[in-house]
Structure formats: C-alpha cells, structure tokens
Specification:
about 90 residues; alpha+beta; 2 helices; 5 strands
C-alpha cells in the first residue's frame, strides 16, 4: 500500500513516499519511512500526528494513499508579528 510521510520545520521539509503492508499504522509508517533517522529531533511521545490535516493516534490504521503528517509545536508569539497598520485600523484621519 502506498502512503506518504511528511514533516516540516524552519530548516527543512521532508516528504517521503513508501510502500507499507496492508493494515499498517501511522507509527509503523513513520518508523518504516526512516524519517526518525533523517530528523532525529522528532519526538513521537510529545508531537502530534495526523492524516491529511486531521490529528490522529499513532495506532490509527492507514488507507491507500494516506499522507501521514508529523506536527511540530508552534512557538511563534502572534504579538511579535503584529502589523503596524493594525494599531490604527479605526483611525480615519
């Protein structure tokens, strides 16, 4: 069965396609993909995973052509990126 495994951080994007046995789980696909060796900072005990943008469990059984995604923690503070124009939105001088 053909599936994909994807991960992205600020330094890299990894997209791997692989064949897994029918009935494979998300965790099995991640392990078989070799992504844990390519990106040793991935920690499946703390990071969430999903299939096509919907979070799921590592034990979820995959279907043909599923894309497994490993999510990283978002650490940006929205206030750090506040647009200067946002402060004067109601000011119609």
């Amino acid at each position: 069965m053909n599936v994909g495994v994807a991960y992205a951080d600020m330094r890299q994007q990894v997209w791997l396609r692989l064949e897994v046995p029918e009935g494979s789980t998300v965790k099995e696909a991640i392990e078989l993909s070799g992504i844990l060796t390519k990106v040793p900072s991935i920690d499946l005990d703390s990071q969430k995973v999903g299939i096509y943008g919907k979070t799921t469990k590592l034990s979820a059984v995959l279907q043909e052509h599923d894309r497994v995604e490993i999510y990283r923690e978002i650490i940006a503070n929205p206030d750090d990126y506040k647009d200067d124009d946002d402060e004067d939105e109601d000011d119609d001088d």
